[in-house]
Amino acid sequence: MKYLKDLTVKAVEHPHKKYVLLKLTDHEPLPEMAPGQFVEVKVEGSERTFLRRPISINYVDRENNELWLLIQTVGDGTRKLATLKEGDKLNLLFPLGNGFSDVGKEGEEVLLIGGGVGVAPLLEYGKWLKERGAKPTFLLGARSKADLLELELFRQFGEVFITTEDGSEGEKGFVTQHSVLSNRSFDRISVCGPKPMMVAVAKYAKKNNVKCEVSLENMMACGLGACLCCVEKTVKGNVCVCKEGPVFDVNLLSWDI
Fold first, then answer.
1. What is the mean pLDDT of the chain?
2. Are residues 122 and 72 part of one domain?
């Protein structure tokens, strides 16, 4: 079921100069949301922002009835969202799309790989996996130590490995170069981040015969499959990422892997 609701901003945090973390709440219990789903946010007061903005569900805190949105401020719309204050209202259409896979078996080893703001949906997914008896491991990539987000939260749910392009934290390089990929084996891999990174991970997964799914970041203006701006080519034809995804098995995508 989808909801169109005004949620209340309970807290605003700035974990990085280019990011804002909004913690939203409601007067009634928040609806069920699956890890990997997203919301469409209405941006008020921005003259250049006409369409809603798709934002991944970062975390759902049931104890405090909070929905977290980790937002990278890259344009007029997201910069406007960063100016919200405690007590403000934010209109959301949610939850949208199809999320990450269910747990396959007790103790299943799942590697969650994220780059940049692509780490956002992996926090909720890691929590969800651990609660269901799987064993999530995180591999997070960033440009530098200063760009790493929510590390202590990730460490609550699984082991965390890090790469930075400048070598200021973890191993230097890209996530596909991290030694954990050659030293450990996993039942499956879930990825979210820049497309070149996801394609590289998909190639690794195919070469090593590991199941792999990716969360695509196509622009999704409506979230309902009506505007067709998020179309992705697959082996079954063109599909709307917002409706059929955003999470896909890489074998369904028409990527050169």
1. 95
2. no
Give the pLDDT band (50/70/90) at residue 224: confident
Token pair 């392009």 in the structure block, residue? 165
- Give dist(CA 110, CA 135) in Å, integer: 6
CA 10 to chain centre: 21
Structure tokens belonging to residue 134: 């799987």
The domain in which residue 173 lies consists of 109-217
Asked whether residue 224 is domain-assigned, the answer is no
For the whole model, what pTM was predicted? 0.96
Q: Is cis: bond before 15, omega within 30 of 0?
A: no
Give the C-alpha separation, 121 to 137, whole Å.
14
CATH of residue 48's domain is: 2.40.30.10
- Residue 101 has, within 13 A of its CA and on its CB side, a CA count of 22
Structure tokens at 218: 């196509």
Scanning the chain, the segments in alpha helix (DSSP H) are 76-81, 120-131, 151-154, 180-183, 195-207, 241-244
Distance CA 76, CA 79 (A): 5
pLDDT digits (tens, 9 = 90+) for 129-155: 999 999 999 999 999 999 999 999 999
For residue 256, being part of any structural domain is answered with: no
Query: What is the DSSP track for 221-245?
Result: SSSSSSS-TTEEEETTEEEEHHHH-
**Single-letter amino acid, residue 44:** E
Give the Cα separation of 14 and 186 in Å (integer): 34
For 73, the token pair is 């401020």
Q: Which of 23, 4, 3 is nearest to 13 (CA)?
A: 23
